[in-house]
Amino acid sequence: MMNFFKLSLTFLIVIINCSVFAATTLEEKIGQMMMVGFQGMSVDENHFIIQDIKKRNLGGVILFDYDVVSAKRYRNIESPSQVKALIKSLQKASDSTLLIAVDQEGGLIARLKEMYGFPKTRSHMELGGHDDLQLTFNETVKLAKTLADAGFNLNMAPVVDLCVNLDNPIIAKKERCFSDDPEKVTAQAGSYIDALHSQNILSTLKHFPGHGSSKGDSHLGLTDVTKTWTEKELIPYKNLISEGKADVIMTAHVFNSQIDPQYPATLSKEAIEGILRQRLGFDGVVVSDDMQMGAIVNQYGFETAIQKAVEAGVDILVFGNNLHYDEKIVPRVISIIKKMVQDGTITEKRIETSYQRIINLKYRLK
Q: Would you tell me the crossing angle of helices 235-242 and 182-198 to the nearest 10 degrees?
């Protein structure tokens, strides 16, 4: 009788899981491969993001506090209670677990700021400077509780770039790196991730294969690290992957001819499939940096960038909708990728591979 009960319970769990994550069409699987931003402190049935979640199986959203397009604050974040209500509305619209992401690194890069009523956070550089893993864990637990209380389940952090160029305008100058020592970065990032996991928050290592030596900002245009990047920038990824602490890895829009003479990392099969997957052994979810950033939109056609990113091995394409705003971005991208599959440019197996990685990641949040 007991064995029958266990078998029945197992069968029920399988049915529930299949129901929760079922995607029966190609379009629905492609929908899971997108993470999109939107304007609005609240959403109703008529909001495009709700329609995309319900009708197109959109897999994730990302929230921001500042709207770059309109140069105004209060894009999605105004107060703890408001954010919690917004996320509840978003999650309720989805038949599956929706990834709700935010850039809450700590310090200067924190979307949930003190001015909105959230707790103060410390930057990676400040934590790295103390070189105290318990302090890093304790501070990050506070940050993680803030995320969990609001309803977030994915933090776009920690940054594992090395502080090798202190004049770097987007990494070191923003205090976003722990250290120039890859072993210290590994230890600090590991403690940071442990703290996120203690609150059931997934982490994102970024910016692969290394943005710390750059002299430019990839938000604005193509950033070439060919002459400054070194192999040691891969060490934190190698270590954290081997320790089983790499949930999601974000690619950088940096060009490095040492790795690929033609494409930046996000569009590079040599970087993602060659180095990250084959050499470093990562088979989890790879997420792009924002596909609307200057390094991509100013250099490559929209369709070409999507094609190359998917071919390279990116599983989730991020469209922050905060540099260019497009309420039709989800059906537009689904249509582009679907046509590529139909034309034979991208195989359906390639889409299935990403879909399965995403679903496996989401199972961890159940």
A: 40
Among candidate residues 260, 289, 290, 315, the one labeled active-site is 289
| Catalytic residue flag (residue 194) | no
Q: Are 264 and 231 in contact (CB under 8 A)?
A: no
Task: State how far the Cα of 18 lies from the Cα of 24, in Å rounded to an integer.
Answer: 11
Token code pair at residue 256: 């490095």
pLDDT over 50 (residue 219): yes
324 classed as catalytic: no
Supply 257's token pair: 């001819």
Domain boundaries defined on the chain: 27-363
Task: Say if CB 353 and CB 277 are below 8 A apart.
Answer: no
Q: What is the pLDDT of residues 75-114, one digit of tens each?
A: 999 999 999 999 999 999 999 999 999 999 999 999 999 9
pTM: 0.93
Write the DSSP symbol of residue 273.
I
Query: Which of 67, 95, 194, 219 is the catalytic position?
Result: 219
DSSP assignment of 238-272 equals HHHHHTT--SEEEEP-EE-TTT-SSS-GGG-HIII
Superfamily of domain 27-363: Glycoside hydrolase, family 3, N-terminal domain (3.20.20.300)
100: helix, strand or coil: strand
User: pLDDT (tens digit, 9 = 90+) per residue, 311-333?
Assistant: 999 999 999 999 899 999 999 99
pLDDT digits (tens, 9 = 90+) for 244-267: 999 999 999 899 999 999 999 999
